[in-house]
Fold this sequence. Notes:
30% of the residues lie in helices and 24% in strands. It has helices at 3-13, 22-35, 54-62, 72-80, 97-104, 115-124, 162-172, 190-204, 232-250, 262-265, 298-301, 389-393, 401-404; strands at residues 17-21, 42-47, 66-69, 88-90, 109-112, 129-135, 157-158, 175-181, 212-214, 255-258, 269-280, 285-289, 308-310, 318-324, 332-340, 347-351, 371-376, 379-384.
Amino acid sequence: MQSKDLVQLAEQFGSPLYVYDAEKIQSQYSRLTKAFSKVEKLRINYAMKALSNVAILQLLKEMGSGLDTVSIQEVLLGLHAGYEPEKIFYTPNGVSLEEIEEVNAMGVQINIDNLSILEQFGTKHPNVPVCIRINPHVMAGGNANISVGHIDSKFGISVHQLPHLVRIVENTKMNIVGIHMHTGSDILDIEVFLYAAEILFDAARNFKNLEFLDFGSGFKVPYKKDDIETDIEELGKKLSKRFNAFCTEYGKELTLIFEPGKFLVSEAGFFLAKVNVVKQTTSTVFAGIDSGFNHLIRPMFYGSQHHIENISHPKGKERFYSVVGYICETDTFANNRKIAEIKEGDILSFRNAGAYCFSMASNYNSRYKPAEVLWMNGEGHLIRAHETFEDILKNQIMLPSALATV
């Protein structure tokens, strides 16, 4: 996409605005499948928590993707978008047995990550095909909030608890069809990933009726010019060879599963915001935009960097700005960032806004959530309308007049 296209979309649909480039999503999906083309049975389950708009789900479905879900609501969205139940994986954390049973009744693949629920579910439903999430105790990920495979993580069943896990499976006669792991997001060192994979292989040897191994995801994408990223091609070459060797050893052709989210949609996303005010203080020039961490919380929550461009005047002389939002708390998107000279009314574009941006948006300060647009075949298609005041009031109930006047 070009800057002029983004400016046009901001004019057409208003700001703030999320825009997603369908072609980029498609190319990332193709890149991943090509990297693992030597694996006979490969399955990609899109981690829809990254971006759960049903139009995006439909787009990925057309490419052959399955879904990785973490809540019953995501399962329902996947079914609504047209996915067959058997193409949906459900990997919750800390949910009730009742929710797991409700999802199971929909025909979705269940993935269980704690011994208590595993024993309860296996006792009641021994014939249901179940996947087990293992915690490999491998520290990986670009931020403590997204490193989920270390020893103090709440996610997964510890590899050190395998004897207990096996005993539960033997006692309940459960049908274990898959083993799963996820170490964290923004994994750069593929050797760490390969090391964790060996732990998964070791765990898999305890189960004789497996159909698949799920290696999670967490591949790092570039956030700025010349930024480093996970070498998917090198990982594909090394892990494919090792996986195929394990299948020979296991005596069965297993399915290799990945569940990428950020990798597929992050670089496809642009967040567009209008500059409300340029404010000079004694030491800083602030560019205040018509948004805040209610729409893009990642810089504040993760310390993430999103490249910012002035797409209204991209050729202007570069100056240093602190880009801030309109929330009545500190919501700084960038400190002392070099950007083409900004004037009030200009449109700024935040790159890498496809993953965990709209999906983490809120109505804080009773602000509306932005619209979403899919750029496809040279056109912008509205896939979520901008919220209105009626949306804010929806589901709220005013007190009866008699109570309100007490």
